[in-house]
């Protein structure tokens, strides 16, 4: 009987955590849907009063283009693969004091598009190596002639996300393989570094990563010295400790307190939303 009580309590606690965002977000979601339907009607859409999921995706993009004059395809010229990777490597240098440099030729590759990189610490000592294979095969997208590949914003997010996972493995200080890198970390907590990295190109919708990113906002994103110090603390806790400590304990070591949903709500613009009874 006791086991069932524990199970119900855990499920209830999880549901309560999720309801914090859900209860705050619902009023804005409802208003957004009303605005979207009005836009569809103004465009003569026959499905305006009964939008399906695929309709919402299509018309939301048209609404963004109309309201903000923003077309995601127009971002591509600014998101060439070399520029994105240079930005990513410069970011991790500032945050974590590591230098990523090409090491092509030091290891065999399975395709001419595959790159091999070396990661050095601030003293120039190699601490890790990694492969980067950006193209899907057999239909590759390796650019045309001398022109670099142009990325969508979602692809940029994906690169930052996956590099967050790579950092967990490359910067771990655990000697025991069973708790090094991603291993030994609970499923919901292992996404913290990857979603945290997404924050630097946009924002993430996860509570832990939003709260972690707010540590950098608190010191001022334009304050490079403070950002470096905070990044070093993130490296020595979240990235270095792996599964050697409980995720909550690791987070407290980095943030100085337990996680709070406030940063997540703020990142979604939900703190000022009033819920009527």
Commentary on this structure:
Belongs to the peptidase M3 family. This protein is mostly helical and 277 residues long. It folds into two domains: 2-70, no CATH class; 76-135 and 149-267, Orthogonal Bundle (Neurolysin, domain 3), CATH 1.10.1370. 53% of the residues lie in helices and 6% in strands. The chain has ten helices and three strands. The protein has helices at 2-42, 53-68, 72-75, 81-96, 153-170, 192-198, 207-219, 224-239, 247-255, 262-267; strands spanning 99-102, 115-120, 126-132. The protein has a three-stranded antiparallel sheet with strand order 1-2-3, with helices on one face. Helix 6 crosses helix 7 (207-219) and helix 8 runs antiparallel to helix 9. The longest helix is centred in the N-terminal third of the chain and has 41 residues, at 2-42.
Summed up:
The chain is mainly alpha-helical and 277 residues long. It folds into two domains: 69 residues, no CATH class; 179 residues, Neurolysin, domain 3.
Global geometry: globular
Spell the H/E element sequence.
HHHHEEEHHHHHH
Low-confidence stretches: 7-17, 273-277
Strand order of the largest sheet: 1-2-3
CATH architecture type of the largest domain = Orthogonal Bundle
Main sheet summary: 3 strands, antiparallel
- Report how far the terminal alpha carbons are from each other: 36 Å
CATH class of the largest domain: Mainly Alpha
- The CATH topology of the largest domain is Neurolysin, domain 3
Pfam family, one: Peptidase_M3
Cofactor: Zn(2+)
GO molecular function: metal ion binding; metalloendopeptidase activity
Protein name: Organellar oligopeptidase A, chloroplastic/mitochondrial
